[in-house]
Amino acid sequence: MERKITIEEPVLYKEDYQMKMMKANTLEGILRVEGRGINGKSCYDYDVSGKISMKAMYERSKINSEDIRTFLMQFKAVLKVTEEYLLNIHCILLKPEYIFYEEGRFYFCYYPPARQDVWEEFHLLTEYFVKQGDYQEQECVRLMFLLHKETMEENYSLEKLMAECMQETEVNEKKEKRSEKEVREGSKNVEYDSEEHDWITEQELGSNIMRETENMWTPVKRFLGRHKKQKWGDWDGLHIEEEDL
Question: For the chain, percent helix, then strand, then coil, each to nearest 5?
């Protein structure tokens, strides 16, 4: 079932080059939009079938670091696509109720009549991240406050900010993997009591020596058993055959 949201503007509808560009092309990450005029107003209908708004989604759960990283990468890609099609990036709406999500992807509304600054809107969005973030996750807290702090600066670079977030995230992930590896390798080097180990070795070695000694003297015992009737002092008749040994 098709589902749409409509944004209205209290001015007569006029289809400009932006709407023509949107109709003629499929822009990845941008919702399909149809424009129309009714009762002296302009209406923009966005197809959001199968999608959920960011606002609704994070009323049920918290934003985590993976959500933030995914959003940053996809928002960056949408900015690039918008510029490639000669559209105005400041017409991308960044309020949570106008950002939609479906199967691992965020979708944005492009609103031609918008009169806003996308950098200011992005800063307001970081305030929303701070409010809805998962404070049980250290990486999420770091990303939220880094974004919020840096976007308070005048004329900040969104490109550099995103690169900084991604770079620090990669460094932290490498540290975590290295720590996990050290733990795994450390568990293999199990310590043992050297004195107890030496005692066990000594006992095993002693048992082997006793067994070998007994085996060596067995032929002699058999021979003496056959000649036990002779006196120990009478050695003249004592002759040990090779086969007796």
Answer: 55, 15, 30
User: How many other C-beta atoms can be found within 10 angstroms of the C-beta atom of residue 127?
Assistant: 14
Alpha helix (H) ranges present in 133-239? 138-150, 158-188, 194-226
Backbone angles phi, psi at 111, to 5 degrees: -120, 100
Asked if 9 contacts 42 with a C-beta cutoff of 8 angstroms, the reply is yes
Query: Which residues are CB-neighbours of 108 under 8 A, at least 6 positions away?
Result: 29, 30, 31, 75, 78, 92, 93, 94, 98, 99, 100
Measure the CA–CA gap between 86 and 69, rounded to whole angstroms: 26
Distance from the first to the final alpha carbon of the chain: 100
Give residue-wise pLDDT tens across range 6-24: 999 999 998 899 999 999 9
* Cβ(58)–Cβ(103) below 8 Å: no
pLDDT at 155 over 60: yes
Distance CA 46, CA 161 (A): 30
Whether the per-residue pLDDT at 138 is higher than 90: the answer is yes
Q: What does pTM read for this prediction?
A: 0.69
Residue environment code for 31-57, b if the CB has 16+ CB neighbours within 10 A, otherwise e:
bbbebeeeeeebebebbbeebebbeeb
Cα–Cα distance measured from residue 120 to residue 31, given in angstroms and rounded to the nearest whole number: 22
Return the structure tokens found at 169: 């995230």
Strand pairing partners for 53?
100
The number of beta carbons lying within 10 Å of the beta carbon of residue 69 is 17
Q: How far is CA 102 from the centre of its chain?
A: 19
